[in-house]
Design brief:
Blueprint (H helix, E strand, L loop, with lengths): L2 H4 L3 H11 L9 E3 L9 H17 L3 E5 L9 H13 L7 E3 L4 H13 L3 E4 L3 H6 L18 H12 L9 E4 L14 E5 L13 E3 L1 H11 L4 E5 L6 H11 L8 E5 L2 E3 L6 H9 L14 H7 L3 H11 L6 E3 L1 H15 L2 E2 L1 E2 L2 E6 L7 E7 L9 E7 L1 E5 L3 E2 L9 E2 L3 E4 L4 E9 L5 E8 L10 H4 L5 E2 L2 E2 L4 E8 L25 E8 L11 E4 L3 E5 L8 E7 L5 H7 L1
Parallel strand pairs: 1-2, 2-3, 8-9, 10-11, 12-27, 14-22, 18-19, 20-23, 25-29
Antiparallel strand pairs: 4-5, 5-6, 6-7, 13-26, 14-17, 15-16, 17-24, 20-21, 21-22, 25-26, 27-28, 28-29
Helix pairs in contact: 3-12, 8-9, 12-13
């Protein structure tokens, strides 16, 4: 076995075996089939990477198909958001398709099944149908309407289509086997009545096909060769194949459904229903809230498509579900941003530093490197003056020898600037330090080439000049849930595990080069983390989101609590 073959995932092994058994490579076709009833999340990103990745690997077309069969929950907003997310992640689809495009064909095939006595109109209530469905260990019982004549079924189904009946009065069911050990095979519903306007077909239809009936037949219409879905659809495969048996003809490609494990992400939920609940209850501020695991939320937070794709490649495709620590995703975000994000200086918890021996009106513009990881990133000028801000926790009156930041009598270097020494500090009535008085060594400026500039001190601090600083709103995001598996607790509602401290909004002070920063631009605030300009920014106010820290601090935060 060659090295390349060893690296294949099990889905690729299935495809390779099909090719060895004579399936023509030019007939390979894949699809990404989201339902437009919510925004895509990190789980969908893995599915996208799989399907579009296979398209790239085998030079095969990949369709973007919207399985839009439920007008009660689907909206054009979700269609637009999904297209935006797929394109942002860097994928290009062959054609844009909709299950609603196939409503006439699906209806015609349903009529065919009725004529073959393989489908019937059931007029029971949903409660009655549930009772006669049976249990996993007990067979179901036949509906009293199962033996309606073909003529009666055709007339009723036509009346359903024409809007002659109210919602819930009739459904069309496949006539399979009410004693099947697979409960999905116990006469599944194919159509229900919905007097709702569809986002594409408006009120043309009064009946809508169920997902299980629509999905496989849509794959067949599009001649999808390999229909890839997550493990929760494994039990659906038997029904998927039964429906295909009714319509497939010998000279057409028959889709093959295969399942892979969903990758669950720690400290979050990926159920669309639960994500919708977070939005509607106001726990988050929309589908694109940076705390959400949606692609829109991650984009707004400052994640890059490259990082998400790298994450998906790392976790790979498996046959068993497992929980992936969100810190692995953050690692890939951090790794990519480290290469591309310009370095800037910002202070988020400021305390004032006064350089007592620096002239009152003097200011200098110091050269600062934009990104040491990128040789072509160049440099910028940052202003320096008598009064500066540094981080409050970068100063202690007294500290042991392991504290390499500023302390009384101690020296540190200001990033790109001078060495300063703390001489004294000023406190308010509550004992809080409000000013640190320091002296600076005028011969110690970084890059000046003098001997004094080359002398070493152990600490280097970031800073901003007070009179040049830009005040900005900085949103510090943390895990949305305090528990790593909020979905798995039987005795606690997942909403009880929402992290009350998942968002903290503060005022930060930034170097003036950021005045022209554009929405979506990402930066490393030196020594603090990676930050992104939020869409709430205006010409008068900058808003930054913390994308990810310079290192994983979650374990430390848990220890403190």
């Amino acid at each position: 076995m060659g090295e390349a073959e060893k690296s294949l995932n099990f889905i690729e092994h299935i495809i390779e075996e099909d090719l060895r058994n004579g399936f023509p490579k030019e007939a390979l076709r894949f699809r990404f089939p989201p339902e437009p009833n919510g925004y895509l999340h990190i789980g969908h990103a893995s599915s996208m990477c799989l399907n579009f990745g296979l398209g790239l690997r085998y030079d095969a077309p990949v369709n973007l198909r919207f399985d839009d069969t439920n007008p009660a929950k689907e909206e054009q907003e979700y269609v637009d958001a999904i297209k935006r997310d797929v394109a942002w992640l860097g994928f290009r689809w062959n054609t844009e398709r909709y299950a609603s495009d196939y409503f006439p064909q699906l209806y015609a095939w349903a009529v065919k099944l009725i004529k073959e006595d393989k489908a019937y109109v059931d007029s029971q209530s949903s409660e009655e149908m549930a009772k006669q469905k049976g249990t996993p260990t007990e067979p179901g019982t036949n509906s009293a309407f199962r033996n309606r004549t073909i003529t009666e079924n055709l007339e009723l189904f036509e009346g359903m289509k024409m809007g002659e009946y109210g919602e819930g009065t009739h459904v069309l069911r496949a006539k399979i086997d009410m004693a099947s050990p697979n409960m999905l095979m116990r006469d599944p519903i194919m159509y229900r009545i919905l007097h709702r306007a569809h986002h594409r077909t408006n009120t043309d239809w009064c009946i809508y096909p169920m997902y299980d009936w629509t999905h496989g037949e849509s794959d067949y219409i599009e001649q999808v060769s390999h229909s890839l879905c997550t493990l929760e659809f494994a039990m659906h495969r038997e029904l998927y194949d039964w429906f295909l048996d009714q319509v497939c003809v010998p000279d057409q490609v028959r889709p093959k459904q295969r399942e892979f494990a969903r990758r669950n992400l720690s400290h979050t939920v990926v159920s669309k229903r639960k994500l919708m609940q977070l939005v509607t209850l106001g726990i988050v501020k929309g589908w694109d809230d940076p705390r959400m695991p949606t692609i829109a939320g991650m984009r707004r937070r400052g994640y890059t498509p490259e990082a998400i794709r790298n994450f998906a490649d790392t976790i790979g495709i498996a046959k068993r579900e497992n929980l992936i620590d969100v810190s692995l995703l953050e690692f890939h975000v951090r790794e990519h941003l480290n290469r591309i994000a310009p370095r800037v200086m910002a202070v988020l918890d400021p305390v004032k530093v006064v350089l007592t021996n620096y002239p009152d009106q003097k200011e200098e513009w110091l050269e600062a490197e934009n990104n040491p990881e990128d040789e072509g990133a160049g440099t910028r000028q940052v202003p320096f003056s008598r009064e500066l801000y540094i981080e409050r926790d970068d100063f202690m009156e007294e500290a042991n020898r392991k504290f390499f930041r500023l302390k009384l009598g101690g020296e540190v270097r200001l990033k790109n600037g001078y060495i300063i020494k703390a001489e004294s500090c000023v406190k308010d009535k509550e004992g809080t330090i409000i000013e640190i008085h320091c002296t600076y060594d005028p011969k110690s400026r970084s890059g000046s080439g003098t001997e004094e500039s080359l002398r070493k001190v152990k600490g280097t601090l970031h800073w901003v000049s007070i009179k040049h600083a830009i005040a900005a709103e900085v949103r510090l995001y943390d895990r949305l849930f305090t528990d790593e598996s909020p979905d798995t607790h039987k005795d606690r509602d997942y909403l009880e595990l929402v992290n009350p401290n998942s968002l903290e909004s503060i005022t930060g002070y930034l170097e003036p080069s950021l005045q022209s920063a554009k929405v979506g631009e990402r930066f490393q605030f030196q020594r603090l983390g990676y930050f992104c300009v939020d869409q709430d920014s205006t010409s008068n106010k900058l808003v930054f989101n913390r994308t990810v820290g310079l290192r994983d601090t979650w374990a430390k935060l848990l220890d403190k609590n």
